[in-house]
Amino acid sequence: MPKSLPTIDMSSPVCCAPMAAGPMNDDDALEVALRLKALADPARVKIMSLLYSSPTGTQNSGELAEALELSESTVSHHLAQLRRAGFVESDRRGMNVYHRPAPDAIGALCAVLNPDCCA
Fold it and tell me: Is the dihedral of CA 102, 12, 91, 84 positive or negative?
C-alpha cells in the first residue's frame, strides 16, 4: 500500500523560498509536493486550462463536465482536490456552483519552481 502524505492547510498560496535559493526544508518540500500532486492528473490540468481561458472567468460544474466529457461527479471530485490545494475558488449561485482559478496560487507555485529566481 502506498504511503499517504499528511494533510496540511493549503488554502493560501505556497509561500517558501524558491528551490534555487538553497536546499528546501522538509515542511516546504511537502507543501510544494502536495500542490504538485493535486495537479498531477490530466483532467485537473484541463480543468485549470478551461477556467483560465473562460471568457467569463468562471464555469459551472456542468459546463466543465461537458467540455471534459466526464460525469459531473467525476469533475466534482477533481474540483475538490484542486480546491483543497488552493488552486480553485467556488461559490454557489442558485442551483449551480461556479468555479474560478485562484489567481495567486499557480503564480506562487511557479515562483517556487523557477530555477532562475535568484540569478
Answer: positive
3-state secondary structure at position 88: strand
Dump pLDDT digits (tens) for 91-114: 999 999 999 999 888 888 888 887
The ranges assigned to domains in the chain are 41-113
* Beta strand pairing call for 88-93 and 96-101: antiparallel
Contact 90, 101 (CB under 8 A): no
Neighbours of 14 (CB within 10 A): 21
Determine the CATH number of domain 41-113: 1.10.10.10
Q: Give CA–CA dist 24/18, Å, rounded.
A: 8
Amino acid 15 reads C
Backbone φ and ψ for 25, nearest 5 degrees, come out as -75, 170
> Any idea which residue has 496560487 for its cell?
105
Using a cut of 0.90, tell me whether the model's pTM lies above it. no
